[in-house]
Amino acid sequence: MPENNELRIGVYTCYCGGNISDVVDCERVAKTLIEFPNVVVSRTDMSMCSDAGQSMIEADIREKGINRVVIGACAPSLHEQTFRGTVTRAGLNPYLYHHVGLREQDSWVHHCDCEGATCKAMRLMLAGVAKARHLDPLEPIRLAAEKHALVIGGGVAGLRSALDIARRGLNVTLIEKSPFLGGRMAQLETLFPTGEDARTGLHGLIQKVIQHPKITLFTQAQLVKMAGYVGDYQVTIEQQSRGVHVEIAEAALTANLPEVPDEFNYGLTRRKIIYRAYPGCYPSTPAVDWKNYNGEPLVINGQPTVLYNEPKTFDLTVGAIVVATGFKPYEPRQGEYGYGEIPEVVTLPQLIRHLALLGDGKPLTWNDHPVRDVALIHCVGSREIEGVHPPHEDGEVNNYCSRVCCTATLHMANELHERFPHLNLYDLYEDIRTYGHGHEQYYRDALENTTRFLRFHGDDRPEVVAAEPGDTHPVLVRINDHLTWGEAMEVPVDLVVLAVGFMPRDVSDLIKLLKISAGTDRFLLERHPKLQPVETAVPGVVLAGTAQGPMTVQESCAAASAAAAKVSSLLGQGQVELEPFVAKVDLEKCDGTGTCMEVCQYEDAIHLETVLIAGQEVRRAVVTPANCSGCGGCVSACPNRAIDVQGWTLTQYEAMIDAFALEPAELVEVMA
Amino acid sequence: MKNIQVDAIVVGGGIAGMQTALDIANQGYQVALVEREASIGGKMIALSKVFPTLDCCSCITTPKMSAVAHHPNIQFFTFCEVQAVSESGDAYRAEVLQKPRYIDVDACTGCRQCEYACPIYLENPFDLNLSATKAVRVPFSTAVPQIAVLDIEHCILCGKCEKVCPVEAIDFTQQPETFHIDTQAIILATGFEITPRNAKKEYNAAHIPNVIDGLVMERLLAPTGPYGRVLRPGDGKEPESIAYVQCAGSRDDTLGVEYCSRVCCMYAIKQAMLLSGALPLADITIYYMDIRTFGKGYEQFYQNAKAMGVQFVRGKVASISQDEHQNPLLRLELTDEGSQIVERNHDLVVLSVGMLPAVSPEAIYNIPVGEDGFIYIPNPNLAPTITNRPGIFATGTAVSPMDIVDSVVLAGAAAAEAAAYIAEHHNGAPALMPEREAIYA
Fold first, then answer.
1. Which distant-in-sequence residues (6+ apart) come within 8 Å of B389 by Cβ?
2. Which residues from chain B sit within 8 angstroms of residue A437, using beta carbons?
3. Is A219 near chain B, with CB under 8 Å?
4. What is the DSSP letter of A266?
5. Fold that domain A583-645 belongs to in CATH
6. Which of A168, A220, A432 shows the shortest C-beta gap to B419?
7. Which of these, B381, B15, B368, lies nearest to B191 by C-alpha position?
8. Which residue ranges make up each domain of chain A?
9. What are phi and psi of B91, to 5 degrees?
10. Please, what is the average pLDDT of chain A?
11. Does the interface predicted TM-score (ipTM) exceed 0.90?
12. Fold of A332-503
């Protein structure tokens, strides 16, 4: 066994299943590194993260007395934790290991230059070894975790997530921005692939949530402030007044009040400014639409009544936060496929509401005209191509598939056929994506129902124009149909239905508050699609449902439950661990200038305290580790070099830079 | 007889089963994971790179395997099969068969001396029979556990392995053993099988060596693959023109498979991208009916493949024959190009085969399957992992075809349901309270 304090470094270069070794000559890297002082072993493996690879490292630590480990592999975000586990199991402090990102920083970006990439790999690994010489054992920061989760959003994902967390014995606070629960699912009538009634299932879930003793619900409530860290987030919630007393609720609903377009029916109807979302909604007490209320007295029960919104705020401490803020249906631009200009052009969500309002047994009409011919157009607001389709207000095109609309459209086509067998249905599509369990049946049914399918190309979408006065139909749909050799077709119809896609909601305020991020598609971004599909980059903040991307009800529930499992895992033990990579003050060098405080961007991360040194009262900087992000701002500002970020000290950086900066000649020499 | 007490049994050690086990164990419950093969890892461990991130597959799978193996709350049993499940009170007792490995698992160190000494060469199932392995072997290089398994059917009992084994781990006398696991919950993650190679007679895959399936191409592309490069199996030639036949096993009444297998579009596009890297000069054509790149980032992936020069041709391939140079000949209707019927020659044809249910849970678990053979889920929208028997859950591709991303998410969902079920069983169901007042101010 090694003598005390003798540095014994193990260096491991991973092939990464070819990701690295296809470009970098890993064997040469390993052979070169063994030449350096204190490097005791230098090995390669096809995948170091495999159990065999990890066992090899463990064996070296145990048998060869390795006390510093340097691994060159994928990005640390992928497997730094994995290897910390490895070295811990072998009895070494997990922070005596340094991870070099050979894949992202080298092989992936230099795949055309094998020699150059191999040399760079050597430099990177050499720098890693240089740093490893100065590594110190560290302990993670362990903090008590509040066994309480905040769920943002009262749609199906938020409800499902809240219930599953509560069932595991944790407290849950669920906040919903609007006055009513249920989200987009409440606006649906039947669900595929079962054909079940949407609101029956939803209301069953809402009942369970309301009755669960561990869940507290707040409607008209929003997150307005957040501080703290995983396990101990201090959040401030603001809740609007409901505005209507239960005693006058019914009278308020029948009073003569101003009306606005009803968002529940996507503007097809109007509602009063004191309203219920729909009959049977939760909670059942009507709410005041404060946005549309001008403060004038309203006559309710014959009494002029002024309503007051007195928002309340309250603070909570929660250990984790579930973001289930949902989506909004794509709103076509003015004139897109005639939308907003031709009255016979509607969106699919609008048609769902129209059919619900129509009631059973009535013939299908639109604007009081009978409907016989209907065109359904897929991919509206989805699968847009940059350079072909005009960008949206934010300069982006929706280049993603909205996943749900194909089956939803065919579900609608079949329902139309069933209720109104005389209808002629035309389905204009690019690809039919009935991918899910039981979805293909909807396509087959539609084919059998004699729905006529016409196929367009993504860069040559159909056109919708108003017909000439006196024509038999009000609208003409033009398409180059690729099922009939690209023939230009004109389909006269009474109604055009746009299968609109999913749009991310504007949650920029939440993104800022929670410090999470959105992807290039503008939906919220997960940490890794396979390793951490519902986690964000912020510890303790997880995603549930369509805030993350288009999903069916089923997929939203699955994601919501998965998010609940992560929250239960995180908070169930009542304790969380944070990385020790935080600032540390050397009290010997600190002379209390306070420069560090001025540059610090974080609340309560560093402050000056009066301490007694050699019998003298002096001011010294003190770090609150839980609030420090380890950004290093104070390190660079300190005039006395009294601060270091643990695990990334200036000494370690300098050693790495020295290694990088070896003269080419020296490098060639050592690498020869 | 050995008797083990846990909170949950996870049946199946593929990606869905491993993730479920980890997500339950991380909540503090005891888990037993039962895998019928000699190593955990499932189908995923044999793949090359995975969409849409193009991460190397072992980089995602092997750490999960390792995490399962080292988790303090997980016991895992390989080469084991659940044979019967009985109810005792509100709990289940599973009868598990430990198939003999003919290896003393406590002694074996995975040094592979036996494998090197064994004189019997067999087709290697891990490489889908493209390479050779031995009658006694560690199943594959990243197997967990790293313990040998002896194929007694092909063993000639020459004793060479016994002689070289440094720890005397070879045991020809081992017998099957049965043990019990008592549990509150059972989660079925029994996975899928692919469409048999010869299912579609018109494609002649049994007689044309250069018609392969998607999983074989995964092995050809994998860095640990049989040849270390992409060669066509018929004659070892490097293919210059490769075709993908989509829906070769899905959306096809003649095969009795009406459903879409959901992963084939993306794996074909992914392989096409990897092939453009491995064989930069090769032409790659994908023959399809509908391109179904529905997942997050998938449509963008498809557009990238198009931009990289992968050809997408709409048309369902009717039949495949072979010319005198062993080149497969595809017959199809080009629906986008005047519906002409053409024959197209390619060096190598990959059938994008679909997913079929792997095992029927009816006999052992007494839960039904749907018309398509996947486990029946009575309330798939709001409770996508709950079967119609309390305490038994299902996840991953045992429920329906799905990709890895969706499997990992559904595994988390199954873990949440199972953990909640266990919690409610341990502590009694939480008392219901009248409607709360705090809903609104």
1. B365, B366, B367
2. 259, 374, 380, 399-401
3. yes
4. T
5. Alpha-Beta Plaits (3.30.70)
6. A168
7. B15
8. 9-139+652-671, 148-240+312-326+505-575, 246-280+291-305, 332-503, 583-645
9. -120, 170
10. 93
11. yes
12. FAD/NAD(P)-binding domain (3.50.50)
Which of B338, B381, B417 minimises the CB distance to A194?
B381
Beta bridge partners of A142: A577
Compute the Cα dihedral for A356, A361, A362, A365 and give only its sign: positive
Cα separation, B303 vs B309, in Å, equals: 10
A533 interface with B at CB cutoff 8 Å: yes
Q: B35: which DSSP letter?
A: -
Tokens of A527: 């940490």
pLDDT in tens, B110-131: 889 999 999 999 999 999 999 9
Query: Does residue B73 sit at the A interface (CB-CB below 8 Å)?
Result: no
Helix, strand or coil for residue A92? coil
Nearest to B409 among A160, A485, A559 (CB): A559
Three-state DSSP class for B56?
A: strand
For residue A642, what are its two tokens? Answer: 């009294």
Distance (Å, whole) CA A554 – CA A369: 37
- CATH topology for B3-99+176-191+358-427 is FAD/NAD(P)-binding domain (3.50.50)
Q: SS3 for A550-591, per residue?
A: CCCHHHHHHHHHHHHHHHHHHHCCCEEEECCCCEEECCCCCC
How high is the pLDDT of residue A239? 97
Amino acid identity at A376: L
Pick A148-240+312-326+505-575's CATH classification: 1.10.2020.10, 1.10.443.10, 3.40.50.2300, 3.50.50.60: 3.50.50.60
Where do the H-state alpha helices sit in A112-192? 114-132, 156-167
| Integer Cα distance of B132 and B122 in angstroms | 5
Tell me where in chain B the CATH 3.50.50.60 domain(s) lie. 3-99+176-191+358-427, 196-355
Distance between CA atoms of residues A170 and A142, nearest Å? 20
Query: Matching CATH topology for A9-139+652-671 and A583-645?
Result: no
Encode B206-226: b = buried (16+ Cβ within 10 Å), e = exposed: eebebbbbbbbbbbbbbbbbb
Q: Which amino acid is at B237?
A: K
Amino acid at A430: E
B384 to A558: CB separation less than 8 angstroms, yes or no: yes
Q: Which residues of B touch A558 (CB under 8 A)?
A: 384-385, 406, 409-410, 412-413
- The structure tokens listed for A386 are 């940059």
- Tens-digit pLDDT profile for residues B328-349: 999 999 988 878 899 999 999 9
Query: Touching check for B263 and chain A: CB below 8 Å?
Result: no
Question: So what's the architecture of B196-355 in CATH?
Answer: 3-Layer(bba) Sandwich (3.50)
Specify the CATH architecture of the domain A9-139+652-671: 3-Layer(aba) Sandwich (3.40)
A558 Cα to chain B: minimum distance (Å): 5
Residues 63-82 of chain A with CB under 8 A from chain B are 74, 78-79, 82
Q: Could you tell me how many CB contacts below 8 A there are between chain A and chain B?
A: 279
Q: Identify the three-state secondary structure at position A512.
A: helix
Contact: B27, A565; criterion CB under 8 Å: yes
Q: What are B383-430's pLDDT values in tens digits? A: 999 999 999 999 999 999 999 999 999 999 999 999 999 998 865 433
Chain B CB contacts of A553 below 8 Å: 381-382
Q: Is the peptide bond before B52 cis (omega within 30 degrees of 0)?
A: yes
Write out chain A residues lying below 8 Å of B303, CB-based.
Answer: 385, 399
User: Which of A221, A216, A206 is CA-nearest to residue A283?
Assistant: A206
Confidence bin at B197 (pLDDT 50/70/90): confident
Chain A interface disruption, residue of B56, B59, B253, B410, most A CBs within 10 A: B59
The SS3 call for residue B237 is coil
As to burial, measured by CB atoms within 10 angstroms (0-12 exposed, 13-18 middle, 19+ buried), residue B84 is middle
